[in-house]
Amino acid sequence: ILAAPLMAGNNLTTMTENVRKILTAPELIAVNQDKRGVQGYKVYDNGPCEVYNKPLSDGTTAVLLLNKGREKADITVSWDKIGLSGTQPVRDLWERKDLGNFKDSFTGRNLGRHEHKMIKVGKPGKPLPMPAPMALDKYTVTRKGVTYLSDLYYLWREGEPPVYNTSFNGDPIDIDGKIFKKGFGSKGHSTFMLKLHGRANRFQAVVAIDKSYTGEKKGRFRVFNADAFSNKILFDSREMTRETPARKIDIELEDVDSIRLVLEGKDVLGNWADVKVTSDKGL
Q1: What percent of the chain stands above pLDDT 90?
Q2: What is the CA radius of gyration of the chain?
Q3: How far is residue 251's CA from residue 134's CA, in Å, rounded to a whole number?
Q4: Rounded to 5, what percent of the chain is helix, strand, coil?
Q5: Per-residue DSSP letters for 185-230?
Q6: How confident is the model over 214-240, as pLDDT tens digits?
Q7: Which of 146, 76, 147, 144 is CA-nearest to residue 108?
Q8: Contact 72, 111 (CB under 8 A)
Q9: In whole angstroms, what is the distance from residue 6 CA to residue 147 CA?
Q10: Which fold has domain 136-279?
Q11: So what's the architecture of 17-121 in CATH?
Q12: pTM score over 0.85
């Protein structure tokens, strides 16, 4: 679905028939090698349940319904999310059979842990439009001065997704009686990445365990340089409880492309308040 190169890392001379069928599935390979060359993109994300779409050269589109969770789930793709409408034919690409015509949406039922369903939707014809490129200022630092990171989309996350500009429970971010309009609410374990593109000189924030958290576990806030080779810790709050005073972060940055904001502590609720960077560099 992502149009990545296909490589086999197993011993081809000893592989089982089942593995051979997986590696040579013709309709899956056709999607990967489609001459239009469009990379699949995410159109739905509800925690462990995700939907990816890849418009194909023949006017149909390939859709991946993916359950990354531990429990069985039904996952639905709505036609309006993939550029279609009305009643559309659906084909199962693994089973290589037509499933019938479906109005407005299709649901993969009872998808198990890490299970997926790969389908092709629509009729041959004019190729469907590709997604419009996202404006650079929506996901990275582009201007001099202050950029609040809660004004940017995160690039990647693991665990619970952050909640923008409120606590994780949707309440105002309240730290020591001060209300912050900007920031993130997190529930441990939570990790998310933001792109700075090497333009930020300073990172600042205030972190604290949310006052609504009533558990006994401790939380820990950390900021990493997200460079895959360094993974350097830029800030470490050490363990904190609800009674621990808020901690201010004020660190200098130099040529940092991306940072990861991490809240450790299972089910601990924490707030990243007033999260911002300053820059003396523009585009």
Answers
A1: 88
A2: 22
A3: 29
A4: 10, 45, 45
A5: EEESSEEEEEE-TT--SEEEEEEEE-TT---S--EEEEEEE--TTT
A6: 999 999 999 999 875 667 999 999 999
A7: 76
A8: yes
A9: 39
A10: Jelly Rolls (2.60.120)
A11: Sandwich (2.60)
A12: no
